[in-house]
Each structure stands twice: as structure tokens, then as C-alpha cells.
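User: Can you help me understand a structure? I only have the sequence.
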Amino acid sequence: MTYNRKMLSRRDFLHTGAAVAGLAAVPAHAQLRIEITGAGARQFPIAVAAFDGEGLLPRSISDVVRADLERCGLFRIVETGPQPVGETAKIDFGNWKYRGADAFVAGSVTRMADGRLAVRFRLFDTTKASDLGGLELTILTEQFRYAAHRIADWVYEKLLGEPGVFSTRIAYVVKNGRQYQLQIADADGQNANAALVSDDPIISPAWSPDGTRLAYVSFQTKKPVIYIHTLATRQRTVLSNFKGSNSAPAWAPDGSRLAVVLTKDGLSQIYELRTDGSGLRRLTQSNGIDTEPHYSPDGQFLYFTSDRGGSPQVYRIPASGGEAARVTFDGSYNVSPHVSPDGKTLAYLTRSEGRFRIALMDLASQQVQIITDSDKDESPSFAPNGRLILYATEVGGRGVLSAVSADGRVKQRLSGFSGDVREPAWGPLPK
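Assistant: Let's start by predicting it. Here is the structure, written out as C-alpha cells:
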């Protein structure tokens, strides 16, 4: 492993090489597998019955709801058998309580006169024999997975009191041979489509706070240039194409500006500019390499990686620029900072005994916990509720996606992708 002083992008900390071209919408056909290990400290026992009429859908919607709840590690699924139970059916609360379920979900799918489908469900508290409410969703057939994720989100929030993230999306880069794809997928890795396909590298995808755009770096013109890509229209514009390298875009929480890394004045330094590319302003002034900026959720600070002290460490400056304060001290290699949505925890990549793993720091106490046990992790990205951290790791010489709970107890590996998967970024909650 070498430390590249020429350009310190995210990927450069781990591997050499690095980002875009023609717009496309190419579905990924690989059979995705999700392997889950560990369990939460307390799991909520819940039964999700087969929905009445779900045979109208390509796949059981109740299966997707169960899978969502189970893979987060906070729910224990109680088997219900194949018999469907509609949301208006009389619920035998005593029976479900006896079978160990504290909550019960029942629902139905019916076809409407215009061909669309109505998905209805209700959530019941079996311990209090009470109805906790439900939703009715009107969908096209092909939207059934999104409907299932919405249902899982609703159940999650109703029972745990915080937002679920099952209907969010993730972005990542897949390298297949000499081709690069910028993929957008459901949070469980399913339903993936390529927003962009290129023979040139794509790196550093970053979601806008409203989830409508991605900033990324493309080498399409044989040098790193930052683009902003509007997902709905597939239109993209150049954000930054200054002399030298343009890399590592990071959105401010209000979406009005981005921090970027430029070498226009020599070594990599952090600058800020508006989303139309105007208003360029330099934020760091050092004799080292400053890179990988990431805003705190309140927009008051920028965390970044710098070797100004002799080794790559995480630092922090006011978002308007100013004196840098060192944040990480354990070890000689701590990079890729990402602050949790509540601003209390810092995820980053640390090297220990030759292994690159994900670490979490409590920013108040500065206590550090390494939460992964693999060797070549990279690019930690918090889920918008802060419960999970998405990252890439290397298995059998190939990059795969993984996620770990913020307490390190539950680990998921999303395998079955074709190609080398890298640089994941978890999108915001849907508006």
C-alpha cells in the first residue's frame, strides 16, 4: 500500500486508480444475495402475514416487508404460514401474542378500475389488542417493491419512533472489465439501474440533500472533472473543471453549495462553490494534501482528511474556513470522515495492523470503536437515520457492498453483483 501525494482522493487511500460518459439506464441483472450476521441487543417480535390478493404482484409484497424488517437487525420475524390475512380480518390477538408476536401486520392488494393496484395494510399491537393504524398506497404493478419499503418504513417508525430507511436509495460505482457504471439501487441493493455508463473511471458519487441529484467525478475528458447529474432528466452539468484535479465533491446540508478538492494552486486543497459553479472560495491553506471534505449535519463544520501533520488524519474547520483542529489521533492512518445525521458520531476508515476497517468515534467523548472485522474496507456512509453504515469491502479480490449497524452488532453483505463494486453513498430520506 502506498500513500499517493499527487492526488489524495477517497479511492487513492486504498488503491491506485480511480471516474464517466454516455447517459444510460441499464438494469443490473445479477442475482443479489444478502447475508446477515449478528442481531440487535433487543429485537422486536413481529408477524407479517401474507397479504390478501398479493398474487396480483410479481412477488409477495409481505416477503419484502419481512426481509426489510429482519435485515436491520431490530426485528425478529414470527412465522405466520401461507394463509393470507387482510387488513379488515378479525385478528386473534391472544393467538399471536401466545406465538410470541408483539405486533402483527395484515394487508391486501386489489386491482382498481384503472388497472392500478391498491395496497392496504394495518399494524396491530397484540399485547394491547389495539389497532396502531395503517396506510393505503396506490401503485403501478412495477412499483410493488417501493410500496413494500414504504410499508416497512411506516411499521419501523411506528414501533421504534424513528424513521426507517428501507425506501431510500444508494449509489455506487461498478467496474466491469474496462467499463464503469454509476448504479442507483434500493437500499437493499435490489432494483439497480445504471444512471451512467462509461469507459472512463467514475468516482466519488455524492447525493444532494433532496436526493434529486448526484455530484461525481468523471475522467471522460482524460482528467478529473466534477459533474452534477439530475436523476429525473439524466441531464448533467459541469460543476468544476479547473486546471489540474477536480475531485471529492460534498454537498452542504442546505444544498446551496459544495465543497470540492482542487489542485489549481498546487497541492490538493479544499474549496467551496455554488451549485452553478460560481463563487469559488478557498477554505484550507496548508502545506499538506487536504481532501475528502464532509459537512457536519448542521452545516457549521467541514471534516476532511489531511497529511499536514505527517500522516493522513481527520481534521475539522469551520465551514467558512479557518484554523483546522485535528480530530483523530489513534494510529497513523485515519481517512474518509463521515458524520452521523445527529452530528454525534464520526465514521472513518482506519488502518490497524495492516487492516483497513471502519471505526466510529463518539465526538463528545472521543471514544473510538472499530466496528468491522474485514481487511479492506472503504467509503463509510451513514444511513439517514444513523442506524447503519454502508461501505465497500474486498472479498476474493473484488469489491462488494456491506453494511454494519452503528453498534457493530449486525452485519450485512450484499453479494451477487457482477463486477467490482466501490464507493457507495447512502441517499437521503425520500421527500
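Now, to help you interpret it: The CA atoms of residues 161 and 273 lie 37 Å apart. The chain is about 10% helix and 45% strand. Let me know which part you'd like to focus on.
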